[in-house]
Amino acid sequence: MAEERQATFGSDGSLDTETPPEAREGTTDWGEPKDDDETDGGYNRYAVSSLLQKAVRRSDEAVAAWAAWELARSGYAWNLWDRLHLYVVEDLRAGQQVALLVERYETLATDRWEPASWKGRLCAIHAALTCARATSSREAANADEFFRNAAAARAEARETGDDPAVDFPVGDLNPGGEYDVIFDQHTGEGARQDRGERFFKTFGARVGPEGEDELSARWQRLNMVLSDVEYDEHEIDHAVAPVDADDRWGDPRDTSDEE
After folding, report:
1. How far apart are CA 6 and CA 85, in angstroms?
2. Do 183 and 175 form a contact (C-beta atoms < 8 A)?
3. Is residue 46 helix, strand or coil?
């Protein structure tokens, strides 16, 4: 069963998780007293908040903007911002700056202005549109679920003595294995193998297939030339060379600081 990450309703319609108390103030757009968890437009705020997240997930800008506006004007700004912050960690492709913008819009709407005011509503719409225009991805949520399932499969396999149906991407982390390069001076095993500065600079500090930019590579070369460790030209070239996209961990496994 997936972990509960947000407020949901049980099979009997009762709320499963506690939420901040709501002040039922004012009336709906047609002048009727508002019910608990009802928006000014007569909608259930749980439905609108769910609509908001799924609209930004599906990049439906118009629906996302309306849902944000409806929650903000109805006194449910906290629910709006909670949903948008959930989106940026659950449904946003990693590496984008949307999370910072949402945080800024919330600060303006709640700290500088009143959330339900005209300015607060504009912040809500801006934030929803920013999210809807971002690149959505369930990668983090999918990864979390897979890692949890893999952990359960590994534990079950250990009990039965069988090989797990699925495993973590790294398998075992042992010296001499695929990820041997991680055992440098920053780990006990690396220190026991005398893998000091030479090993770290030459192998452990290398970056991805895109490589170092020209300035960073120049600094690294100069640092190695000026080091107390005497590096040869091959070691310096290897230190600033990008890793192989098809073999990211394929570094030599027999280098130490011993002469």
Report:
1. 12
2. yes
3. helix
Count of all residues that appear for the chain in the document: 259
Closest CA to 83 of 94, 70, 95: 70
SS3 category, 9: strand
Kindly list the domain boundaries of the chain, sorted by start residue: 45-139, 171-259
Tens digits of residue pLDDT in 192-243: 888 888 888 888 888 888 888 899 999 999 989 999 899 999 999 999 888 8
Domain 45-139 has CATH 1.20.272.10: yes
**Structure tokens of 197?**
């500065």
- Alpha-carbon distance of 167 to 115, in angstroms, equals 46
Amino acid at 217: A
- Cα 46 from Cα 206, distance rounded (Å): 48
> CA 75, CA 117: separation in Å to the nearest integer?
10
What is the distance between the alpha carbons of residues 186 and 193, in angstroms, rounded to a whole number? 12
d(CA 136, CA 251): 35
Q: What is the largest CA-CA distance in the chain?
A: 86
Query: Could you give the angle at the alpha carbon of 71 between the alpha carbons of 65 and 76, nearest 5°?
Result: 150
Its pTM stands at 0.70
